[in-house]
Design goal:
Keywords: Coiled coil, Membrane, Transmembrane, Transmembrane helix. The protein has 11 helices and 3 strands. It is mainly α.
């Protein structure tokens, strides 16, 4: 009888242990699945960031929606706070980088409307260069290791999630390497400065050139050649006006 009681107790303990293991296992499986769901969700957000036409409403909805629960949810909220700030930075830079006014500065319509002093165009160039320089500093600061980890530290999440947090935030690559982004901005600034030089040239020589039926006419060949030289430094103009047929004297 005593042996039977012992066996019952042992079997009961074994069953409880098995059930406990199954329960813990199910929690681990659920936790791992939520981590995978979060990875997929963050990847989708990054993919939306890279679209030519940003769907602001859709991105904001994704940033405010959650795919996890429990402690994973705490991590997700911190990661999405980081991405929300990243998205604001993306929008700020996009406003400048995709501003069509840059490529319209040398349009015949703008040249005629803003001559002889080109006050509007030159002020726009000055403001845009300042904004671009500021954006470089903002991107540098945002992508520092210190700033990235600060979101995690401020949230005081369990250290278990640190590696996953770093993995998820490192998926943000809209600007690429900060140095590469700075180089790209420097190239754009150089283009704006080249356009500004053209406007200065046209301002200094106002009355010695005109635009008739879409074509430039200069007083002499020296002015024509100087104008072509200045234009050669503007990449987008060279792509669209390769043969300079609209520039004459």
């Amino acid at each position: 009888m005593k042996n039977k009681v012992v066996k019952v107790i042992l079997w009961s303990v074994l069953i409880i242990f098995i059930l406990f293991c199954v329960f813990i296992g199910s929690l681990v499986v659920k936790d791992l699945k939520q981590e995978d769901d979060l990875r997929d969700n963050i990847k989708e957000i990054n993919d939306m960031f890279s679209q030519d036409d940003l769907d602001v409403d859709k991105i904001n909805k994704s940033l405010k929606s959650y795919v996890t629960t429990g402690e994973n949810l705490m991590l997700e909220k911190v990661v999405k706070k980081y991405y929300s700030d990243a998205f604001e930075l993306v929008l700020d830079t996009n406003d400048v980088l995709r501003d069509k006014r840059i490529t319209n500065l040398l349009s015949n319509e703008n040249i005629l409307n803003d001559a002889p002093d080109f006050t509007y165009s030159k002020k726009y160039i000055e403001n845009t260069i300042n904004i671009l320089n500021e954006s470089v500093e903002k991107v540098k600061d945002f992508q520092t290791e210190e700033n990235i980890i600060s979101y995690y530290k401020d949230a005081k999440i369990d250290s278990y999630y640190k590696d996953l947090y770093i993995e998820l935030t490192s998926m943000f690559n809209y600007f690429g390497d900060s140095k590469d982004y700075e180089n790209d901005i420097d190239k754009l600034i150089s283009q704006l400065e080249a356009i500004n030089d053209i406007l200065d040239f046209l301002k200094e020589n106002y009355g010695r050139w005109t635009i008739v039926d879409g074509s430039y006419y200069f007083e002499n060949e020296d002015l024509l050649m100087k104008f072509k030289e200045l234009l050669s430094k503007v990449d987008y103009y060279n792509e669209e006006e390769k043969n300079y047929e609209s520039i004459k004297y």
